[in-house]
Automatic annotation (TrEMBL), chain A:
GO cellular component, as recorded: cytoplasm; nucleus; proteasome core complex, beta-subunit complex
Free-text function comment from the UniProt entry: Non-catalytic component of the proteasome.
Biological process, per Gene Ontology: proteolysis involved in protein catabolic process
Compartmental location: Cytoplasm; Nucleus
Gene Ontology MF term list: hydrolase activity
Keyword Nucleus attached: yes
Protein name in UniProt: Proteasome subunit beta
Pfam hit, one: Proteasome
Span of the signal peptide: none
Family per record: Belongs to the peptidase T1B family.
From TrEMBL, chain B:
Species lineage: Eukaryota, Fungi, Fungi incertae sedis, Zoopagomycota, Kickxellomycotina
Any one GO biological process: proteolysis involved in protein catabolic process
Organism: Coemansia biformis
Function: Component of the proteasome, a multicatalytic proteinase complex which is characterized by its ability to cleave peptides with Arg, Phe, Tyr, Leu, and Glu adjacent to the leaving group at neutral or slightly basic pH. The proteasome has an ATP-dependent proteolytic activity.
Any Pfam family matching the protein: Proteasome
GO MF assignments: hydrolase activity
Name of the protein in its database record: Proteasome subunit beta
GO CC annotation terms, alphabetical: cytoplasm; nucleus; proteasome core complex, beta-subunit complex
Length: 247, 234
């Protein structure tokens, strides 16, 4: 009997393996993209938000995407950058979590471990000059400790009480440094929601790739909760008074 | 042989155009210095991590204590620095398990050089200093470039404020251009500590990539211990 031989479709082979069949294929620019993610620590845990838009250049292409992923019972992942690369990472993390489940050892993978795993994947990809074009924020509660970490396509990692990706680095971080830094332990959930909504509103006003349909996630000792999409109240009458920049 | 290399057919075309290539490196700023004395060695690093005009984090340490009490100070690409530390720490622990004793500082220094050179074709974008106690009990500081060139030194500074601090160390630690000084004199701990703090407070005034907090590790026969100082947050 003939041995079974299976030709994998090119999409399932690595870029190196396909070299003989054409040019190597890599993410050299993001195509379908998600914009900022904003996250910070508060009294009960961590809060994170991202809108539901996946843009195709300047086209608002997919308007009902979820950019907040529940990784496990204690961890959420916020994503900006290429949505295709994110789906790849999502499958990888699901594999990791399935493997953990299969171990059946009563041990859950903590937020720090998920963050390290994600960081190692990102650093490995950039070292092979084949990056996943994303910025991720990992948030969760690990053994009673709040964990908030950032990792991007360069494998750069850092942790802080408040974090943002993309435009949020410019527009949300200054707000968060003022309202969160040094007082993460005193912010109630109510205030956290207000701070988060203010950040997302500023982004909505000034980031052309932002969208007024967003989700908010919180991780507390009780677990992960990702909200249904909601909208922010806006007031565009300010626009009338803005002059300059060629207007 | 690497499997990926084997799988690549010989007739595969080699890409001639190399322009517009994505760069895998980022410069996250920050500064590290080391001063070696008779029976101690000191490593000082700021804790700011930046990306261009953005401050990523005010506390992201770039000096790491290894399991044999040597301290690795870094600057350059933060992702590479952290990986370099992990690789070195793993190798130090492997040495412990294989030989049932801690790796010596000179051996670790050579290992760091080899580790850096092993990435000759995609270098760690890191300018490390390694500080520990040598076999004779003297303070030993080693400085490296990104591909593993190594030198034992008494005072060195790398990173975004190195151009501000290194000449200061040349004068105050190595007594360069001091007419009546003994060029071989080694600093006391108190002297070295003050010079490290002064170097960083001054550098913070002029270098936007250096600031927030200063971590100073002092290594002697008893081990490594850490002192923290606040730098300007602007």
């Amino acid at each position: 009997m003939d041995p079974v031989s299976l030709e994998l479709p090119h999409t399932l082979r690595g870029p190196q393996a396909t070299a003989g069949y054409g040019p190597t294929t890599r993410t050299t620019q993001p195509i379908v993209t998600g914009t900022s993610v904003v996250a910070f620590k508060y009294k009960d845990g961590i809060m994170m938000a991202a809108d539901c838009l996946a843009s195709y250049g300047s086209l608002a292409r997919f308007r009902n995407e979820n950019r907040l992923m529940k990784v496990n019972e204690t961890t959420v992942l916020g994503v900006s950058g290429d949505m295709g690369d994110f789906q790849h990472m999502k499958h990888k993390l699901e594999d990791v979590m399935t493997h953990e489940y299969d171990m059946d050892d009563g041990q859950a993978l903590g937020t720090k471990s998920v963050y390290k795993c994600l960081s190692n994947i990102m650093y490995g990809r950039r070292t092979n000059i084949n990056p996943l074009w994303n910025s991720f924020i990992v948030g969760g509660v690990d053994g009673g400790e709040r964990v908030l970490g950032y990792v991007d396509l360069y494998g750069t990692t850092y942790m802080a009480d408040s974090l943002a990706t993309g435009f949020g680095k410019h527009l949300a971080v200054p707000i968060l440094r003022r309202r969160v830094e040094g007082r993460a332990d005193e912010i109630t959930e109510e205030e956290a929601v207000a701070i988060m909504d203010d950040c997302m509103r500023v982004l909505l006003y000034r980031d052309c790739r932002a969208f007024n349909k967003l989700r908010r996630a919180k991780v507390t000792a009780q677990g992960v909760e990702i909200s249904e999409p909601y909208s922010l109240a806006t007031n565009w009458s300010y626009a009338e008074s803005i002059v300059g920049y060629g207007v | 042989m690497d499997l990926a290399m084997q799988a690549r057919p010989m007739e595969a075309p080699i890409e001639a155009h190399n322009h517009n290539r994505w760069s895998p490196y980022v410069d996250n700023g920050g500064t590290t210095l080391a001063i070696a004395g008779a029976d101690y060695v000191l490593v000082a690093s700021d804790t700011r991590q930046s990306d261009g005009y953005l401050i990523n984090s005010r506390y992201s340490p770039k000096a790491f204590v290894l399991s044999n009490n040597a301290v690795l100070g870094t600057s350059g690409c933060s992702a590479d620095s952290k990986r370099l530390y992990e690789v070195l720490e793993q190798r130090a622990q492997l040495y412990q398990h294989r030989h049932d004793r801690q790796i010596s500082t000179p051996a670790l220094a050579q290992l760091l050089s080899n580790t850096m050179y092993s990435r000759r074709m995609l270098p760690y974008y890191v300018f490390p200093v390694l500080a520990g106690i040598d076999a004779k009990g003297a303070g030993a500081a080693y400085s490296y470039d990104a591909v593993g060139n190594m030198q034992r030194v008494t005072g060195v500074c790398f990173g975004s404020a190195s151009a501000l601090i290194q000449p200061f160390l040349d004068n105050q630690v190595r007594f360069k251009n001091q007419r009546d000084a003994d060029p071989n004199r080694l600093l006391t701990r108190e002297e070295a500590f003050k010079i490290a703090v002064d170097a960083f407070t001054s550098a913070t005034e002029r270098d936007i990539y250096t600031g927030d907090y200063l971590e100073i590790f002092i290594v002697d026969a008893a081990g490594a211990h850490k002192e923290m100082r606040e730098l300007k947050h602007d």
